[in-house]
Amino acid sequence: MERRGFLRGAVIGTSAAAFGGSLMRGAAYAAPAQPGAGPYGALGSADANGIMLPAGFTSRVIARSGQTVPGTSYTWHNAPDGGACFADGTGWIYVSNSEINPSGGASAVRFSSAGAVTGAYRVLANTRQNCAGGKTPWNTWLSCEEVSLGYVYETDPYGVNAAVRRDAMGRFKHEAAAADPVRKVVYLTEDETDGCFYRFVPTTWGSLASGTLQVLKAGTATSGSFTWQNVPDPDGSPTTTRTQVSGAKKFSGGEGCHYADDKVWFTTKGDNRLWQLNLTNNTYELAYDDSLVPGGAAPLTGVDNVTGASSGDLYVAEDGGNMEICLITPDDTVAPFLRITGQSGSEITGPAFSPDGTRLYFSSQRGTSGSSSGGITYEVTGPFRA
Q: 26 falls in which pLDDT band (50, 70, 90)?
């Protein structure tokens, strides 16, 4: 991995409370997150599923690639990737992408109010390398193709309505999406070494059928102010979307994206960074950079998918590293939350909380085999803080 040089510029931003929690509102800006003791304590020994967890937490396997989901007749897809949860009456649904090409698509597992699996089914088919995506406020799942000139597909997690390709959201190597109901836009990451960060402004909020694709413009520093500019040709052909606007800020391999409380965070795998945009004052800064951890003791490397809890904690999954999901607290402490053992040839994908915040879902994309056919989807239950 070629690491970019780092020069800390003038500090711009708001408090560490930008992580969406209620702590430290209005406090002075703190440096990017540093290692410390996590809120749940040290990891214990690996359980029967090979997962190391803090005391009080337990894991179970929900599904395995190529095998029927227990309690259903549905065969789970290969290479499970990005995911999200949706309320479903008294229960909920977990949707998961399939990062294979061709075929791809996404599947869903339905749970009862007690957490029992009650069904599983396909929600998207015949697409390419569906990596991450995002949930909309109107309860659809945006499944993103991580291929050149890839599309975003809006899918129905309840399995009723057919998926719809949303051309207006641009054609590029899509990764993740995060909806902002305040500004009524959807943020999009691009998995290219010189990728950009975008937002889609729908003509009508609640419909992604038409709208304007914009790209973030900023300087080359790791903090500063930003603006948005329209992408002239969202179709990306013959000129790629990332090269159409002069001054568009480049990011090294955009990955996960999460919105909460007037902030949006996204990860870049090429430099193991977590970026934060403050949407109230249009500034950006680093929330985490593994190269800024003294002594080479960074707990979080291989940054990838990211999600948030109601507590304001961010959960960042590793692609490689120690196969951990690490959390970053509102007071800028980063610590491992869990570790998957015996699966060094895999990556952790699709972290998402159940609607009540008591269960965390995620996958090991290639499991113990190191192959896309070896994916395993898990659930962790325990005393997550509110």
A: very low
84/386 Cα distance (integer angstroms): 19
Phi, psi of 17 (to 5 degrees): -70, -5
Q: Which residues pair with 251 in a beta bridge?
A: 195
Q: Sort strands 117-124 and 254-260 into parallel, antiparallel or unpaired.
A: unpaired
Confidence of residue 296 (pLDDT cuts 50, 70, 90): confident
Domains in the chain with CATH codes: 16-381 (2.120.10.30)
Q: Which residues contact 150 (CB under 8 A, 6 or more apart)?
A: 128, 129, 144, 171, 172, 173, 174
The amino acid sitting at 98 is S
pLDDT in tens, 137-174: 999 999 999 999 999 999 999 999 999 999 999 999 99
Q: Read off the pTM.
A: 0.92
Which tokens is 380 given? 């962790």
Quick one: CA dihedral 160, 165, 168, 172, positive or negative?
A: positive
Query: How far is residue 96's CA from residue 141's CA, in Å, rounded to a whole number?
Result: 9
